[in-house]
Amino acid sequence: MINLTKIRVACLGAGYFSAFHYDAWRRLGSVELVASVDSNIEAARSTGLNAYASLEDMFDAEQPDLLDIITPPSTHMKAIQTAIKKGVSTIICQKPFCSSLQEARKATELAEKHDVSLVVHENFRFQPWYRTMKRALDEGLIGQLHQVAFRLRTGDGQGADAYLERQPYFQNMDRFLIHETGIHWIDTFRYLMGEPSAVYADLRKMNPHINGEDAGLFIMEFEAGKRAVFDANRHLDHKAENCRTTLGECLLEGTAGTITLEGDGSLWLRKFGSQESTLLLEAYKDTSDANSFAGDCVFALQQHVVDALMENGEFENTARQYLRNIEIEEAIYQSSEQARKIPL
Q1: CA dist., res. 335 & res. 344, Å (int)
Q2: Under DSSP, is residue 232 helix (H, G, I), strand (E, B) or coil?
């Protein structure tokens, strides 16, 4: 158990998505947010924290307990090495985790060697609708599960200016749909259903202005004939006031009923043979001071890490656990390239 009344947190990165991290840390009562590091020092200063352009300088001056890495994959290995060298005890690292499976394994082994807790910031499983789905499955509300299907329809992928306003580096990623976005559902399907035995994928690029794939599907096989289907097209939208709340629609089908996730974050249960649906989870309403991301899952993940530190609990999505997601991602790309099912 950590012997602190406040966990001192420093953040590496002050770009677009980091705002959700900073907001979440500020809302956690057991956290003292002490510093921001960014190669663009003005971006770091804009957070209102002690600002640094160098991670090494920040560690020498602040000595945080936890480093939150909110930068692209190419920076992860060096940041993890530096943090471990400087004696930090806990690291959270954004996904995609490192630049390759080999590098992710190296980072994981390094952290384990030095007894440093390394958690991947894979936050979708912390969205309230997936937590509610998991409880419903555990309670047997829909009987024996047969299939989970998610239709990703972000509506942001059309034209030459796709992604430029928010995350322009999306256009230059050679692996995009699965590596950047689909990885969320690789992890979520594992969270809901356990470990898959095989994958099949068919991926394609619809927008000629970007480098990577932006549409396609994959199927994950599980024991007892269960299947998970990820059907994605970033050009198309779904029925939602904000397509980024859920990024699409989901269906869980079992022998005793069906659970449907709508684009507003609400969950509906329809019992087998019934024409009526009952509400399991109300539509998501942002109650934070900032515009929180996707059910406030960034806050939920960071709260989980803080609780585990304070109560000597276990982390979800440790780097060691997360390596399996990356291995499955590699198999999905292999399947699409070879047009065949890949056993895991």
Answers
A1: 11
A2: strand
What one-letter code names the amino acid at 181?
T
DSSP state of 325: H
Angle at 19 between CA 13 and CA 21, to 5 degrees: 80
Q: What is the mean pLDDT of residues 337-343?
A: 98
CB 208 within 8 A of CB 129: no
150 band by pLDDT with thresholds 50, 70 and 90: very high
Q: Are residues 107 and 318 in contact, defined by beta-carbon separation less than 8 angstroms?
A: no
- Give me the residues paired with residue 281 across strands: 267
- Mean pLDDT calculated for residue range 282-299: 78
Torsion from C-alpha of 34, 38, 39, 43, nearest 10 degrees: -110
Is the pTM above the cut of 0.85?
A: yes
Report pLDDT for 1. Answer: 44
pLDDT band at 4 (very low <50, low <70, confident <90, very high): low
Pairing of strands 145-152, 227-233: parallel
Give the pLDDT band (50/70/90) at residue 287.
low
Question: In degrees rounded to 5, what are phi and psi of residue 295?
Answer: 75, 20
**Whole-angstrom distance, CA of residue 329 vs CA of residue 344:** 11
Task: Give the residue from 194, 145, 154 showing the smallest Cα distance to 176.
Answer: 154
Q: What does the chain come to in residues?
A: 344
Residue with tokens 């602190």: 4
Q: What domains can be seen in the chain, in order of their start residue?
A: 7-121+300-313 (3.40.50.720), 125-282+325-343 (3.30.360.10)
Pairing of strands 227-233, 215-221: antiparallel
